[in-house]
Amino acid sequence: MIMEADVAIIGSGPAGLTAAIHAHRSGARKVLLLEREEELGGILKQCIHNGFGLEQFKQDYTGPEYAERLIKELEETDVQCFLNTLVTDLSSDRVITALSPEHGALEIKAKSIILAMGCRERTRSSIGIPGTRPAGIFTAGVAQRFVNIDGYLPGKEIVILGSGDIGLIMARRLKLEGASVIGVYEIMNYPGGLKRNIVQCLNDFNIPLYLSHTVTEIRGKERVEGVIISKVDSDLNPVEGSEQSIKCDTLLLSVGLMPENELSKKAGIELSASTGGPVTTEILETSVPGIFTCGNVSTVFDLVDYVAQTGTVAGTYASRYASGHVSGSGQFVDILTGENVRLLFPQRYSFQDDLVLFIRAADPVEKPVTIEVAPLGSRINRPYARPNEMLRLKIPKGKLAEAKQSIKVSIREK
Amino acid sequence: MAAEKKHFVCVVCPIGCEIDVVHDGSKIISMAGNKCEKSEEFVIRELIEPMRILTTTVRIQGSRWPVIPVRTDKPIPKQLFPRIMRQLRGINLQAPVNMLDVVVKDVVGTGANIIATRTMPRG
Q1: Which listed residue, A163, A220, A300, B66, has the most CB atoms within 10 A of its CB?
Q2: Are strands A104-115 and A2-10 parallel, antiparallel or unpaired?
Q3: pLDDT tens digits, residue range A329-378?
Q4: Residue A407 CB partners (closer than 8 Å, separation 6+)
């Protein structure tokens, strides 16, 4: 089937849902939302813990409640949703190829497209743990799906490698369900997840967190029988003689997320080496005209509120693009990472809107810091900078008019 | 009760101050490490009775998925979590269920209800 659309959105998690609602509200007539699963909502459906929407809705929702609120808003629009629909190809002239049991092979020509595919978890092979290859090794998100949607426990004696938020949330969840959670081991000397998750998921349940430790071997033939834990030195190399053997039947990995950009690559979209997502401007347009990006496919955000914020921007501008209102002259300046900045989003400024910058620090600074935006002379103070908590700042359009060359962002101790 | 030392991480805001408290079980004798006064109220509540929202799942029949997510509709004493989890193990709902439907009223006498956090249609 060949179809046409004003705006087509790939993925119906918080980013895609918000983008669809805002594309509709901004006047796009034919908006198509494509979802590969059987239900809308993306990963929110399995995030049954609370803490969602505190900023956006001033409510303490669980993931499914947050999703359902957005889905209800979407149902008041005439956005068309295609479920069970897997996008297999995307071209730079904005043609989507997709497969669906209901509609068969689909070719969708869209005036503008929004990428909202989210991210993937890093796996054992991404971090290269030596040892055998038994059953019982899961990424934290897969275990979360098993427990919260499919209704079964992945194991009884659990070791968690990595202190990302999903790992911390799963430590609590598995303990509540009666599993023994032996400990969370983190290779870095600071935790990966938010501080309140350390408190409410680990401290509340007496689950120990070991910093500067990693798994150096997995043991077991059919099923995991144990792991070897080692301390690491300041270069993250295992310290000889520090090995400790721990008996367990399950190893969960919470070792980072990566934007999912297989489709973006097919469309020839330029990707950022630091975020792993498309290089974008402040209106969230990628390097391919008419293709926009939002949510965790762009860069991995800490909070769903940030994801939704990008969905709003992408939905609004994709709708404007579809109706021919493109104000951009193609002119832009680069936004560059300076001192103690690991990544920035967006990476370009095109003089069309205020600049909302998301910044991740490279190293933790537990002292007051100044975020310096050169050459604008903007200096914003924050009480600290931590790699596990994105910094966000807004620079009004008026202030940016004078940016002639590149903009450079640095985090310095005050 | 004799004076006791306790360590807290304040979760009122994202700063997460590490606070050392000397207390007598219900009153703060001294505290150090907090950057603002909001921590005081947090520490007192934690000393008297730590309260949390419990989120979990219960069994359901006649729907696409075998479990449905639920939570308490207000914070409850943290120490009651294991008891409530045991009680919820015996529950088996029948689809359809609407979001915010009450699954258990006044769970273990807390005054809080267990409510569904998603709509689960039949099928």
Answers
A1: A163
A2: parallel
A3: 678 999 999 999 999 999 999 999 999 999 999 999 999 999 999 888 77
A4: A333, A334, A335, A336, A349, A373, A374, A375, A376, A400
Is residue B27 included in any domain, yes or no?
A: yes
Q: Give A 342-381 residues with CB within 8 A of chain B.
A: none
Same domain, residue pair B75 and B106: yes
Residues B102 and B62 in one domain: yes
Contacts of B78 in chain A (CB under 8 A): 204
The string of pLDDT tens digits covering residues A64-112 is 999 999 999 999 999 999 999 999 999 999 999 999 999 999 999 999 9
Pair B22, B66 in one domain: no
Q: What is the pTM of this model?
A: 0.94
- Which chain A residue's Cα is nearest to B59? A151
Same domain for B42 and B62?
no
For residue A386, give the amino acid letter. Answer: R
- A159-168 pLDDT, tens digit each: 999 999 999 9
Task: Find the residue in A nearest to B12 (Cα).
Answer: A196
By residue range, what is the domain housing residue B12? 4-48
Cβ pair A319, A22 in contact under 8 A = yes
